[in-house]
Design goal:
alpha/beta; Nucleotidyltransferase, domain 5; 5-stranded mixed beta sheet; 10 strands
Length: 254
């Protein structure tokens, strides 16, 4: 079976194609582009040169949901499965489970299957999120803070003289110019907050397992000796698709 997976985020759309259970193709598309339908159709057709049998989507951008629903119908002949708290296959201990980002639930499912519980997952996306799976295997909640790019844009937007900086690890903790100072502040500020926050979460959850994913995971997590799982969300989408497929078959057999 060939499965296409879409993780629709605020900045980019992480896309993968599984061929016979193996992740063979991955690419990213911008979430904000002109002529959206034509652009996404061209991108999908460029990469999906094989027959697709299923599609699953996690989305935190509701405005793009109808577009991708129609794209799947037109390109593949079927509707995609949109992940929500009811079909994700993990118990959600949130006051209102419906408001948890689909990507956070997908990460939790993948993390639980791949690493067991309890577990802490840090996703370095548009926002940096901490997601906790408790010892019972349920999604316990977490925390959200501004992402690295969001912080860099805020420094530029809300000041008169600070430039917009492209993030990279600084050479020194003491910056000798404005750009170096911003990089140092963001890098060491983030690593410091990650260390402090993760330490407190570990004590609360009585957990010693922590993993990371997302665009800046390698840059931030590696020096902190946190395992980086780049395609965690795509793997979670595949797991949820398979679980829902089995549930449908089971229902048909009754």
């Amino acid at each position: 079976m060939n499965l296409i997976t879409f993780d629709i985020g605020n900045t980019s759309i992480n896309t993968g194609i599984y061929v016979n259970d193996k992740l063979k193709i991955t690419w990213r598309m911008s979430s904000d582009t002109k002529n959206k339908t034509a652009f996404y159709k061209k991108e999908i057709l460029k990469h999906a040169k094989i027959e697709i049998h299923g599609a699953i989507i996690s989305s935190v951008v509701p405005a793009l949901d109808p577009l991708f629903n129609n794209l799947c119908l037109n390109l593949f002949g079927f509707k995609p499965l949109f992940v929500n708290y009811k079909n994700c296959g993990i118990k959600v201990k949130y006051n209102k489970p419906s408001v948890v980002g689909a990507d956070r639930l997908v990460n939790a499912v993948a993390g639980k299957v791949m690493f067991g519980a309890p577990l802490i997952i840090i996703d370095f996306g548009t926002a940096t999120t901490f997601d906790c799976i408790d010892k019972s295997g349920a999604y316990a909640g977490g925390a959200i803070l501004p992402g690295i790019d969001m912080s860099l844009k805020a420094l530029n937007h809300f000041t008169a003289k600070l430039p917009l900086v492209k993030f990279s690890k600084p050479k020194n903790i003491i910056g000798k110019n404005t750009i170096e100072s911003i990089k140092s502040g963001i890098y060491y500020g983030y690593t410091g907050s990650i260390i402090h926050f993760a330490s407190n979460l570990k004590k609360t959850l009585k957990c010693d397992k922590i993993i990371a994913t997302g665009g800046y995971a390698n840059l931030i997590a590696k020096p902190l000796e946190i395992s980086n799982v780049p395609d965690l969300t795509l793997h979670g989408l595949k797991i949820i698709w398979e679980n829902n497929k089995l549930n449908r078959k089971s229902g048909e057999d009754k």
